[in-house]
Write a structure and sequence with these properties.
With 145 residues, this protein is of the alpha+beta class. It is built from 5 helices and 6 strands. It folds into 2 domains: 99 residues, Multidrug-efflux Transporter Regulator, Chain: A, Domain 2; 39 residues. It is 49% helix and 24% strand. Helix 4 crosses helix 5. The radius of gyration is 21 Å and the shape is elongated. Pfam families: MerR_1 (PF13411).
């Protein structure tokens, strides 16, 4: 997906109302509704609530609840789990932005699937690839002819 396609998808997802009720979030994550209310009271998560209606959680909040819950299962306190989830989110956003900025397409290098990350020099003679093989990713720079 190029930058233009990614921006179009981001715009689309903001327009779509992907909100879930508290019961849906609880069922999907295994976090009780009372815990969700407590986390919201503490400011760890948020919901949208219009007058006379139930809480509605975004897909983004669903993922956050899932991460917090998993970190707590690993033995972290609630506050530490929230912090770890925020750090994870920042890392994932950096990776996402890096890939959107650098992604030039998918090809094959030496018979293996490879992600083209584009030129790495001002002269545009060297291209950087992430080559996926044998369960890991290698970095390969190829001189353009």
């Amino acid at each position: 997906m190029n930058t233009e396609e990614h921006n179009a998808f981001a715009t689309f997802t903001k327009k779509v109302n992907w909100h879930l009720g508290i019961g849906d979030v609880s069922a999907a994550t295994g976090v009780s509704q009372s815990q969700l209310r407590y986390w919201e009271q503490k400011g760890y998560i948020s919901s949208e609530k219009e007058k006379g209606q139930n809480r509605k959680y975004s897909y983004d909040t669903l993922i956050k609840v899932f991460m917090i819950s998993n970190f707590m299962k690993e033995g972290f306190t609630l506050a530490a789990a929230v912090s770890r989830a925020a750090e994870h989110r920042e890392t994932m956003e950096l990776l996402r932005q890096s890939m959107v900025d650098r992604f030039q397409g998918i090809t094959t290098v030496d018979g293996f699937p490879a992600i083209n990350l584009g030129y790495v020099d001002a002269e545009k003679t060297k291209v950087l690839y992430l080559v996926v093989k044998d369960g890991h990713t290698d970095i390969k720079m190829i001189q353009n002819k």
